[in-house]
Every structure is written in structure tokens, then in C-alpha cells.
Amino acid sequence: MWIIAMIGHIAAGMVALTAFWSAALLRKGSKLHRRAGRIFLLAMVAVLASIPLIGAALLMQAEYLQVVRLPYVMLIASTPAWVAWRAIRDRQELARFTGHVFRLLAVAMIASGLVFFGIGVRVGNFMTIGFALVGLAFGGAMLAFALRGPADSRWWLEWHINGVCLLFAAAHDSFLSLGLRSLLPRLQGDSMRYLIFYSVLGLAIAARIWLGRKYLAPARTGRLENQSISS
């Protein structure tokens, strides 16, 4: 079961990674960009579908902390995928974007983040603490946005970027920690796992800052508001 689940997970992850970088490098809003984005989302669905099988295999190996963590991993991977997708689809309908699903996901991210932060502190696991902080930060930003509303008309682009950057972290952390480390035994061990996770997270934060300055800077408002990124 473990082998089948891992093969499917890694294969879907490779497709997702390829589609992610294809969308990133293609002209934004182009037909090919949108097509690559759809392929990425479909691949992410396959990745998420394989996680319960991985969880069952881990349960048989008595890896209880890993099993408990998996539903939360699914949440922090599926939430930005939904946000990135719906930000484009609902860019003319703010109320629809920030509706019940958005708020439910925000609360789930915050609540789960708090629980896992407590677990991480209790057992002294810095990986669990890191995952918890991701959920708390992203979920907190979602809830704050739902309550206060957008600062300008480019809110949809901001949230598309937010989702994409967290997806970058999820896809690359999964590839490096599961795919690459399974092929290179020298990369095993907690220290290397922490290095991979926090390095990828740092890159995602840096990418968010850079993309924000490039696409959301006030000086470019006029051009961006006329920019079309179709669904």
C-alpha cells in the first residue's frame, strides 16, 4: 500500500510541479497560462487523494504523529488551491469569494493551527510548529480580509498571488522531502527535513514580497486594473 500510494503521490506531484513552473513562466493571463494552472489544480487533487492511503500506511507503521498531521497537511494544501482558483473566478464578485466556504476554511486553518502549535510545543517538534504557523498566518489573513474587506480593486490578484505562493511552498516541500529524499538517503534525518521545510517557506515568503512589489505596487495601479487574467 505504501509503495502504491507513494508512487501515485510522487507522480502526481511531478505533474503538479511541471505545471506550476509552466504557469509561472508563461505570460500571465494567456491561454497557455490558464491551461497550465488547470493542470496544476487537477494534479493537486490527485496528490491530495493519495494522502489518505499514505496515512493508512503510516498508521500501520505506528507513526501516529505523522498520521494526525496529515489531515492538517491536506487543509493547508487544499485551502490555497481553492483561494487561488476562486480569486480568479470570483474577481467580480467579492461577496461570493468571501462567502461561507472562504470563512469556514479560514476558521479551520486557525483552529487547526492552534491545535498543532500546542502539539508541536508539547512534543518539541519544530516541523509541527512550522506547519501550525503557516495555517495561523494564512487563515488569520483570510479571516481579517473577510471581516475588513479589500483595500482596492486588485484584491483578487492579491489573493491569487497569496494562494500561489503557499502552493509553491506545499508543492516544493513535498517534492524535496518525499520525492528527492527517498532517492537520496543522505538527505534523510530531521535536520535536513527542517532545512528543506524552512528554506522552501522562506522562498515562498520572498516570492510573495517580490510579486507584491511587481504586480501590486501603487504606481502600477492603472495598468494592473486593466490587466485580464481570465479563468
Q: Please, what is the average pLDDT?
A: 84
Oligomer: single chain
Radius of gyration: 18 Å
Largest sheet: none
Distance between the termini: 37 Å
Low-confidence stretches: 219-231
Helix and strand composition category: mainly alpha
Helix count equals: 9
Strand content: under 5%
Q: Element order, helices and strands?
A: HHHHHHHHH
Proportion in helices? over 70%
Shape: globular
Question: What keyword list fits this structure?
Answer:
single chain; mainly alpha; 83% helix
Task: Describe the model.
The chain is mainly α. Helix content is about 85%, strand content about 0%. It is built from 9 helices and no strands. It has helices at about 1-25, 30-60, 65-90, 95, 100-125, 125-150, 155-185, 190-215, 220-225. Mean pLDDT is about 85; it is low at about 220-230.
In terms of topology, how is this protein built?
Layout: H1 2-25, H2 31-60, H3 64-89, H4 94-97, H5 100-123, H6 126-148, H7 155-183, H8 190-215, H9 221-225
Helix pairs in contact: 1-2, 1-7, 2-3, 3-5, 3-6, 3-7, 5-6, 7-8
Give the gist of this structure.
Helices cover 83% and strands 0% of the residues. It is mainly alpha-helical and 231 residues long. The N and C termini lie far apart (37 Å).
